[in-house]
Amino acid sequence: MIIDRSRLFQFFKYTVYALLTVNIYLFFAEEWAAAAHRFTDGVAFGAIIEGFAASIDTTAWVVLLLMFELETFVLDDKQFTPRVTWTLHGLRAICYTFIVYAFYGYVTKLVFLLGAVPLPGLIDLCTMVDGQWAYAIDLDEYEVLTTENCQTLTGSREFLQFPGLTAIVDPAGYKDILRLAWVDVINAAVWLLVVVILEIEVRLQERELLSGLARRISGVSKLFLYTALLFAAVYWAIKGDFKDFWDAFLWIVAFVFIELNVFEWRHESEEAQKTGGAPVI
């Protein structure tokens, strides 16, 4: 049996895209459960981004990824009519709006967590069992305190309370949660820089100007940025947060595919210039 490597590669690529789409549901399910503890009176419209930053962020990124896939691989140059071009640019602009909005949500969540205050006098977690108080297991994971779990969640005799919430955590857990929140902010900021560079590359490639110094600066910049993203993924893996690690890994792989699309597009454009023909994506 002859294996078509090109089709196998495309199947693998779109499988990665599909898995990233599934992650939208996984993040939403996690944030929906956490919202029950963080927003006991319901999620106000202005707090949606704080409570569902990861869900909104992931959705916008998936749509943006598909826009890049269309522009760098699926559509031929001759299909870039003014209407198609403006549609793609408009959809990407909407995605960027939500991505920046989600970044603001990560920052807001970090600021919220930094507001945690010590609970003086509380040395026994079991005294807080009343059906209302919860313990922060992770960044977006809370467990309601019961007589069965209050002695197993932590051995600490010091606790902090998150502002305005009936949710507490011990100092060690609080430190881990803060670190995870910082990684979320840094990871989101780095991804914004990645797509800024990729947008510049695509625009330059459309004008057949992606060469020489511009290509070298772009390559070096993305080397540092992808390394930072890899470190974030490794950190999530070390902390045992498989979902965040898996999501980060899939996004790196997905944008490697986009980078390969741009590379192939540039190669075909250069070949077309040599032969005097028009490039075909």
| Order of helical and strand elements | HHHHEEEEEHHH
Sheet with most strands: 5 strands, mixed
Distance between the termini: 29 Å
Tally of structural domains:
2
Q: How many helical elements?
A: 7
The rough form would be described as elongated
Structure description:
The protein has 281 residues and is mainly alpha-helical. The protein has two domains: 5-115 and 173-275; 117-170, no CATH class. Helix content is 68%, strand content 6%. It is built from seven helices and five strands. It has helices at 5-38, 48-51, 53-74, 82-114, 171-206, 212-238, 242-275; strands spanning 117-118, 134-138, 141-144, 160-161, 167-169. The chain has a five-stranded mixed beta sheet. A hairpin with a 2-residue loop joins strand 2 and strand 3 (141-144). The chain is elongated. The mean pLDDT is 85.
Topology, element by element:
Elements (H helix, E strand, L loop, with lengths): L4 H34 L9 H4 L1 H22 L7 H33 L2 E2 L15 E5 L2 E4 L15 E2 L5 E3 L1 H36 L5 H27 L3 H34 L6
Briefly summarize what is shown.
This protein is mainly alpha-helical. The protein has helices at 5-38, 48-51, 53-74, 82-114, 171-206, 212-238, 242-275; strands spanning 117-118, 134-138, 141-144, 160-161, 167-169.
